[in-house]
Amino acid sequence: MADVDYLERGDGPTVVFLHGIGADSESFAFQLEAFATAGYHAVSWDMPGYGRSAPLVPMTFTGLAGRLRQFLEELNVPAVHVVGHSIGGMIVQQLARTAQDKLLTMVLAQTSPAFGSKDGEFQRKFVTERLQPLQQGQSMADIATEVLPSLVGVDPDRKGVELAQKCMSRVPNDSYVAAVKCLVEFEGRDHLPFIAVPTLVLAGENDSNAPVSMMKKMAQKIPGAEFTVIPGAGHLAPMGHPDKFNHAVLDFLARHAYKSDINQA
C-alpha cells in the first residue's frame, strides 16, 4: 500500500485535485481528461485511507496537510496548482499555512474556512447524523443511494451521477468515519487574510453543504480572490456538472498561466 496513490494524465504544468469525504481519485475522471487535453499534467490523489493510500491514524488536518506536502515533493515539481473540493479545500487551506511556496494557485471548490458552531452543537449533530446509518448496518452504497440526489444539483450529468455512486459506494467505512470526525475540527478563518497566491473560490448554486452566501464571504476575506458560482450545481459539481466546473477552473488557470513557468518537469 502506497503512502499516497493517485491517478494522472497529460503533460505540462501540474494541477493536483483533492477529493471530498465521499469520493476518491476517480471522482475527478472528467477533470483528468479535460485538463490533460488542455495541456496540463492532471493529478488526482487518494486521500489517506482512501483507494490504495495508507491510512493516517489519527486523521487530523495537520497530518493530512503534511501528507499532501510529502506527496507534492514526491511529484518532483517546485510548485503546483491545487484544486481542493470540500474537505480537499480544507486540506489545501491547511497546507497554505506553512507551505504557500508549494502553491501556484488555489481553487477552493465548494468548501469552507471552518466547520460548525462555536459551542460545538452543530458538529456533534453532524457527526451523529452522518455516522448513524453505518451504525445501523447500512453500507456506503446504501448511503450513496440515499444522499446523492441532494448533492448532484439540477439536471446533473448522468455519467457523473453514476460515477458519484461508484466512488462513494467503495469508500472504506473506517476511513469515512475518520474523515467525518476530522472534518468537524477544521478552523481556518484566521488565516484567510494571509493567503497570498491567486485563489478562485468556486461555489455551486444549489449547494446546501457549502452555500453560496458563505463562500462569497470566504472569498471576500482572501486578498484578491475571485468568486464564481456554477449555475445549477449541487455539492458534487466536479461530477454533477463537469463541463461547467472545468470551464470555470480552466479559465482561471489560463489567466494565471505565467505562474506556471517555473513548473516544468
UniProtKB/TrEMBL annotation:
The keyword Hydrolase applies. GO terms for biological process: acylglycerol catabolic process. One of its GO terms (cellular component) is membrane. InterPro entries: AB_hydrolase_1 (IPR000073), AB_hydrolase_fold (IPR029058), AB_hydrolase_sf (IPR050266), Epox_hydrolase-like (IPR000639). Its EC number is 3.1.1.24. Signal peptide: none annotated. One of its GO terms (molecular function) is monoacylglycerol lipase activity. Keywords: Hydrolase. Coiled coil: none annotated. Pfam families: Abhydrolase_1. Residues 13-242 form the AB hydrolase-1 domain. PANTHER family: MONOACYLGLYCEROL LIPASE (PTHR43798), MONOACYLGLYCEROL LIPASE ABHD6 (PTHR43798:SF5). This is Beta-ketoadipate enol-lactone hydrolase. It comes from hydrothermal vent metagenome.
